[in-house]
Amino acid sequence: MKKDRVRRALAFVTSAHSSYSGCRQYRENIARAQEAAGPDAPVVDKIRVFHNHPGFIEALVDRVQQALAKLPENRRTAAQLIYTAHSIPLAMAQGCRYEEQLQETGRLVAEKLHHGNWRLVYQSRSGPASQPWLEPDILDYLREYKARGDGSAVVIAPIGFVSDHMEILFDLDTQARELCDDLGLHMVRAETVGTHPRFIRMIRELICERLDETKPRLALGSLPPRPDFCPVDCCLVPARPVAS
After folding, report:
1. Left if phi > 0, otherwise alpha if psi is -120 to 50, otherwise beta: which for 194?
2. Residue 181 in this model has a pLDDT that exceeds 90
3. Cis peptide before 72 (omega within 30 of 0)
4. Domain-embedded: residue 232
5. pLDDT reading at 158 higher than 90
6. What is the Cα–Cα distance from 17 to 51, expressed in whole angstroms?
7. Mean pLDDT of all residues in the chain?
8. What is the pLDDT of residues 79-112, one digit of tens each?
9. What tens digit of pLDDT does each residue of 1-47 get?
10. Which of 31, 80, 97, 129 is the most exposed place for a label (fewest CB within 10 A)?
11. How far apart are CA 232 and CA 58, in angstroms?
């Protein structure tokens, strides 16, 4: 970019929700690349996160609606809607609004669907077992749901991801589906927003708003749109555990 004399650029990070690994770490990576490029490196502005942008919510609603339609009509109302997102360490979660934003996304989607039976759970955790991460895990929750006898059908919607990549295909389409088969639960997995036309239009809207200060920053729900420029204390580096 420097050789091509690019002076400014926008970075669209495909993380809808704020966390160190989904926000600040990308900005740190960009800063390191600018430092490596030396003088006259392009200025790179990160586009704001979009957890409550109408385009993201509308695309999710359509995906979940399509999934619900795959259930027999007499099971749709009682089906549990289970949202999933990537688990992160509790130390990281305490320095950002990740959980709050995920809850807001889930609530907005459920309200538009008039489907009050929903729960947020997590997947894809890694790292040592001694380090606490956000819970419950999707597999643990499915076992709990079955043990409670609350229902026989679930729709799993990975709202914390924007594409059907390997974590979705393995954690949900393989592991969660095999467990649901064993438990006798009818499972349908909603697609991620992917290339949904409303999501693609949202990306354009985010670019256009950043290029024009007069354009309104669209957002739904009780949380305001995230600022164009991340505050200094946004998504702090998680504290490292002290060795005993």
Report:
1. left
2. yes
3. no
4. no
5. yes
6. 6
7. 94
8. 999 999 999 999 999 999 999 999 999 999 999 9
9. 999 999 999 999 999 999 999 999 999 999 999 999 999 999 999 99
10. 129
11. 31
Give the total residue count for the chain: 244
Whether the bond into 136 is cis, omega within 30 of 0: yes
Whether 215 shows a pLDDT value over 70: the answer reads yes
80 within domain boundaries: yes
User: Average pLDDT for residues 154-159, to the nearest whole number?
Assistant: 98
- Domain residues for 171? 54-189
Give the Cα separation of 217 and 209 in Å (integer).
Answer: 7
For the domain that residue 116 is a member of, what is the CATH number?
3.40.50.1400
Distance of CA 189 to the CA centre of its chain: 16
Q: Assess if residue 92 is contained within a domain.
A: yes
- Which strand ranges, in their side-by-side order, compose the sheet holding 118-123? 118-123, 80-86, 153-157, 186-189
pLDDT at residue 240, rounded to an integer: 62
Q: Who's near 74: CB < 8 A, 6+ residues apart?
A: none
The single-letter code of the amino acid at 20 is Y
Q: What are phi and psi of 44, to 5 degrees?
A: -120, 115
Q: How far apart are CA 80 and CA 202, in angstroms?
A: 28
Rounded Cα distance between 131 and 91, Å, is 9
How many structural domains comprise the chain?
A: 1
82, two tokens: 């289970």
Contact 121, 84 (CB under 8 A): yes
Q: What is the pTM of this model?
A: 0.93
Identify the residue whose tokens are 């380090």. 131
Query: Does 223 fall in a domain?
Result: no
Token pair belonging to 107: 């609530």
> What is the arithmetic mean of pLDDT over 185-209?
98
